[in-house]
Each structure stands twice: as structure tokens, then as C-alpha cells.
Amino acid sequence: MSNNLPFQPLVFGGDINVYSVARAFHEAYGVRTIAFGKYPSFPCHNSAILDYRVCPDNEEESAFRRNAQAVAEEFPDKKIILLGCGDNYVQMAAHCRDSLPSNVIAPYIDGALLDRLINKEEFYKLCDQYGVAHPATFIYDKSMGHDFSLPWGPPYIAKPAESVTYWATGDRTLAKVYICQSWEELLQSLDHVYAAGYENHMVLQEFIPGDDSYMRVLTSYSDHAGRVTTMCLGHVLLEEHSPHGIGNHAVILTDCDEALEQQIKGLLEALHFVGFSNFDIKYDRRDGKYKAFEINCRQGRSNYYVTGAGHNIARLLVEDLVEGKQLPFQMTKNRSLWRMVPKSVAFKFTPKQYHEEMRALIRAGADHHSLVYSGDASLRRRLRVCKNHLGNIKRFDQYNKLPE
Fold first, then answer.
1. Torsion, CA 181, CA 237, CA 108, CA 80, rounded to 10
2. Please, which pLDDT band fits residue 176 given cuts at 50, 70 and 90?
């Protein structure tokens, strides 16, 4: 594989996040992205837009360094743009960034700041410091056992303060987030988490009322100097509710809220943040405030909603890191629709008040599905995407409730 460009994208992971990044690079520059993943799995394996390389020990730092070194040597005259598409890969990239080969660019903050930000307990402290609202929160330590109380009633939210070691337990019965309808269910969930071998704190939070359409996602890009250049707010209309997919976005309408975005911009620039950031936020109708749940120090798995809205994420990286351009600050204003599900699922499970605009955007060609790409449309690929559509139809029928 060769290209005439002065750069080569390199990503770590094998999920829809990786595919969406690779699609952005392919759309903008016609380049195939090199990706290292643990398994030969869809959607990255056998894709025309990816040079996908299976590495079973991909999550080990030694393998991460070895693979980055190999690609740097394979393309000695190019800048290698290295991106992680999962928290573990991002953590390694941040900690290794200053000791990678000289032609490798890893656009991340230093490891110590990243460790602080991805720990939800520390993140909420920063929110308090910079005036960013978040849900009422209690930090639980396993030494408390059942001897504690909360100043709010059910339903209770419970999630790990530190997700990398949480998933490193390898226990497939763990949930991404626990929504507990009673005190007894909360205690059982906590006991289950610590029995699995997790040692860090759990974050217990008040449940903010409202269906999926109260959720927002905010993706930002901060250049190499720590200046926010691009912000794209997404109004989430539908999420997954399966145990391992809970909270994953399924349908997003782009939106704009200048006050919210300026507030987050202030936080990011005060921290001298670099690279992509992704905030999960929910609108609280009780007090009219947007409340931040967490920050991902990377582009989210739904990042194609940004590219689909007209801000190709690959161009942001290349123009900043390779071409050295001073990018103007921009907030996405135009409306577009992004989906990870078939249209039938999108209309079945989203509130009817959004359907007219969704149909108008589809008619206008402002509708995007991360996996449906004409540049990667072999018969084999199209059949595999159809299988994904059928799986989503079945899963959403099983786990999601119809809108009221």
C-alpha cells in the first residue's frame, strides 16, 4: 500500500469508531487507514478503506509501541497520525506520546492530565471548579459496604469512576451503567461489581428524568496549541438499551447551543486540552440546565455525525498537524441526521415530534449512516451491512421501549 500524501493515518481498535475515522480519511484524501485490532471482526476486517492488521495482544503497551514503530519504519518520509479509538488505547497514546518514533504524531494531552480527566470522580471536581453543571453525585468506596445513604431517591445510577480497569476485569456480566429502580437493586449491583474484581470507586448519581431525546453529545477539536477550533453539538434522539450497548448513540440530529458550547470551550482551553474531546450531556427539564456526565478524551464512536455535518474530522487533524494551518473557530450550525440503525428503527423508536425534520433531511440528502458508504460497497460488504441492520432491528425491538 502506498500513497502520495505527506501523512499516513494509524488507528488502534476495531469498532465503529475506527471505521468512522477511516471513512473520514478516505472521503477527504482517498487514503486507506492502517488499523490494529485484536480480532478479525466487522466493521473493520475486510474493508476496502482499511489496512486492518490483527494483533491479539494489541492492548499491551509493548505491542502498541511495536506496531507504532513498524508503521513509522514502513513510512519513514511521512507523518504518522496516530489515534486511539478506545480509552485504553488513548491512555497508552497519551503516556507514550513523547517517546514514540519522531515521525509519529499522537495528538493528546500528557498522561497525567488524561488519567485525571477520564476518572469521573476527578472530572466532576473540574466541572465544579469551572462552573459546568453535572448530576448530583456520590463517590462510593467498596469499604463502605452497605453502610451509606444518599440524599436522593430511586432510580439510582451507578457506574465505574475508572472504566479502563473496570473492563480489564474481563467479566462480561458487568454493565456499562446500572440503572437501579430500588435501594436493594443498587446494593446488589455494587456487590456484583466488586465481586468481579474491580477495585476503584463507583460513581452514584441522581437519575435525570427524560427519555433518550434529552441527551446531547458535544464533540470538540482542540489544536496542537490547545485552542478549540471546532465544536459540533448533537441532539441525541435514540440510544441503545442493551446491557453492553447502553448509552451508545443510535440517532443524532446536529444542533447548536452557543452558551453551552462556550462554557465547555472555556473548560477545555483552561486545561490546555489537545485533540478530540467528547462530552455526554443531558438536559434537566427540572431546572433548565445541561448536565455533563463525562468526557472522553477522544472522538466518540458516533464521530461520523461530525463529518456528516460538514466538518470532516480527518481534515481537522491534517490541516492542524500536517499543514500547520491556523483553523478558525466554528460551531456547527447546519442541521443533519446521523444514524447507526435502519430508517425503520429510527422512526419507530424516536419521538414523533422529530419525524418531519428527519424526513426532510433524508429527502435533502443530509442523512448519514456510518456503515453505508459508496467507497466501501462490495457485494460482500453490502451483505454484511444488511446483517448489521437486521441485528439492530432485533436488538432494539428486544431492549428499547416505544416512545410515549
1. 130
2. confident
Q: Which residues of 270-280 are buried (b: 16+ CB within 10 A; e: fewer)?
A: ebebbbbbbbb
CA angle 79, 82, 88 (to 5 degrees): 165
Distance set, CA 268 to CA 118, 127, 224, 259, 264 (Å): 14, 11, 13, 15, 6
What does residue 170 show for φ and ψ, rounded to 5 degrees? 80, 5
Closest by Cα among 85, 97, 88, 91 to 21: 85
Burial of 169 from C-beta contacts in 10 A (0-12 / 13-18 / 19+): middle
Answer whether 219's CB lies under 8 Å from 192's CB.
no
Distances (CA, A) of 373 to 26, 43, 301, 311, 368: 10, 12, 17, 17, 9
* Rounded-to-10 torsion of CA 276, 301, 249, 355: 80
SS3 labels along 256-309: CCHHHHHHHHHHHHHCCCCEEEEEEEEEECCCCEEEEEEEECCCCCCCHHHHHC
Quick one: cell of 99?
A: 517517546
Name the grid cell of 1.
500500500
Half-sphere exposure of 183 (CA within 13 A, CB side): 8
Residues linked to residue 369 through DSSP beta bridges, in sequence order: 339
The DSSP-derived string for 147-196 is ----SS-SSEEEEES-HHHHHHT--TT--SSEEESSHHHHHHHHHHHHHT
One-letter amino acid for residue 278 of the chain = N
Using the CB atoms, write b or e for 74-86: b if 16+ within 10 Å.
Answer: ebeebbbbbbbbb
pLDDT per position as a tens digit, 310-338: 999 999 999 999 999 999 999 999 999 99
Residue 42 contacts residue 20 (beta carbons within 8 Å) = no
Compute the distance between CA of residue 93 and CA of residue 298 in angstroms, rounded to an integer: 11
Do the beta carbons of residue 213 and residue 354 sit within 8 Å?
yes
Say how many C-beta atoms besides its own lie within 10 A of residue 129's C-beta. 10
pLDDT at 2: 54
At 31-64, the pLDDT tens digits run: 999 999 999 999 999 999 999 999 999 999 999 9
Q: Which three cell numbers stand for residue 387?
A: 446483517
pLDDT digit string (tens) for 261-309?
999 999 999 999 999 999 999 999 999 999 999 999 999 999 999 999 9
